[in-house]
Amino acid sequence: MKILITGTAGFIGFHLADRMIADGHTVFGLDSINDYYDLNVKHGRLERTGIETENIEYGKINCSKKHPNYKFIKLDLEEKENINNLFKAEKFDAVCNLAAQAGVRYSLTNPDVYINSNIVGFMNILESCRHNNVSNLVYASSSSVYGKNEEYPFSIHHNVDHPVSLYAASKKANELMAHCYSHLYNIPTTGLRFFTVYGPWGRPDMALFLFTKAIIEGQKIDVFNNGHMKRDFTYIDDIVEGIVRVLKNPAKPNPDWSGKNPDPGTSSAPYRVYNIGSNKPVLLMDFIRTIEKYLGKEAEKNYLPLQLGDVPASHADVNDLMNDFGYCPQTGIEAGIKKFLEWYIDFYKLNIKLREI
User: Fold this and answer.
1) Which of 146, 155, 239, 284 has the fewest CB atoms inside 10 Å of its own CB, making it the most exposed?
2) Which tens digits make up the pLDDT trace of 210-230?
3) pLDDT of the residue at 102
């Protein structure tokens, strides 16, 4: 198929584009390449897929130097006319919207960015899908939508009306907006609630990257909630495999859905949401200890209270993913962290040899 993937200078978008290119699909990547974190990492991802940094100009289509079935454009999702013109010209079969302003804590100090990118930008994607006969829209939601929920594991059939950050609220809004378009215009939409994604080419603002950098450089690491955190860490390849399966199987209406007892995870419209997580939450301190063992160096820790917008634990119920696609993530943190560390050492050209654990 011919697919538009937004956010291909980003962590998940880069890996998905790489996979879809390898699978022989015609892929069109889009990203604004903003400076939320180190541009060297973003440009490094693009270079890996044959998009040369010196050739990138805003609004100009770039052809990959490595893959004849891959093109890229630097563009903001907020620019409605440019986005719709792109859809009209390229006639995509499917869209995977991974572009968004990420980060829970950043939303506390820069809320406007989340409205522009995650709400206005997503609205433009929906409108362009509506007017250009896109047959499947898959989009990134987040485990953050579970907010104040304390019933574990988190299920797509639970109510998620109590977010604790604007980032989470923007992702919940995406799900509601997608449902409207599925209901009104019969567009198949699937929202994927990702759980703490990590791996090679990961985001520099995420815990694994921050911990690794600080430990190597002999700096303190911030450990929130005094270390009493649990996260459903999910390896990037497992996330990508889940996305690929959903892209190949557009959402269908649930024939058993009832307005008298509405199921939040499905609908009478072609609308679905799924959790993609490991279903094996890990204590933050065990996660840190695994990094320390590989590096052969103990981190100096700065224990802090739970941050505003954070939740103490996450745990994905992946039964629906298993039932509908016969799939759930399998990579354990030892294997996943090792692959990240190998990438980090290579990317920054460090003279470090990992320990065996």
Assistant:
1) 155
2) 999 999 999 999 999 999 999
3) 86
